[in-house]
Structures are given as structure tokens and as C-alpha cells.
Predict the structure.
Amino acid sequence: MHPADRTLPRLLGDARRWFDEALLAALRQAGASPVSPTHLGLFAVLDQDGTTVSELARRMGVTRQTAHQATHSLMELGLLEQVPDPASARRRLIRRTPLGERAHQQATLVLEQLEEALAERIGRQAVTALRAALEAPWGPAPVLGAPEA
């Protein structure tokens, strides 16, 4: 496939995989518990005070079952725990354990280093512009008609 033929969503996905692969390699090298890209995605969307499995699934763009499985495998590794939601007796929150918090801090440092490495490769100005474009409010996704064939 010619590089110009790749869509923006594919380019964004490729960029995400670049970060994920480098982060997973750095964590493996540091002797951290083995985690998957799905686990990384869950950690990335988890609120500090905890998040419900349903909300994690929505943020990750996966099924509730997938989020539940990822949550439980991270609980088995001692990185996450399930606690009662103080706002609702019926809900449970998923949050980081102290071990999970240390792993999250380690991953954050690696991601900062990766962003710096990217700046060295493509230029600080390009990284700053990329960050600004991604942080800008895009508004709700538009509903477009089907293109004519």
C-alpha cells in the first residue's frame, strides 16, 4: 500500500501501535508484569478514584465482556482492585492498587521518554502541532450521508 493511500484513522492507529509496542517492550525489559495492549488501553482510561467496568468499556470502545476480562486479569496480577462505589450501593469501581499505581507511574515516565524520542525523530514543532491538533475540541462526530457510488 502506498503511504498516501492510508487514511487518517489508520495513521492514528499506526501511531498508537508505535507507542504501545515501545511501552510494552520497555515494561518487559524492566521486568514488569506481562500486560497486553488491551491492558494498556484500560489503564489509560481509568480514573484515579476508580471507574465502572461499563464506563471502561465505553471509553476503550470494546464490549463490556472484553473490559471485564481485562479488568479481572489485571486484578489477578495485583494491579487493580474492585471497591464499592460510594455514590451507589449497586455499583463497583475498578481502581489501581498501590502496585498498579507504581506501574502506572512507570508507564507514564516511559511515555514521556517516547514522546521525547518522537520529537528527536520528527521535530519538536511537529510533536507540538500534533498534540495541539489532538487536544483541540473536535465536537461530536458528524452524521454524514453515504457517499454516492
Observations:
- The helical segments are 8-29, 37-45, 53-60, 64-76, 98-122, 124-135.
- The longest strand covers residues 88-96.
- The domain at 12-120 is CATH 1.10.10.10 (Arc Repressor Mutant, subunit A).
- The chain has one domain: 12-120.
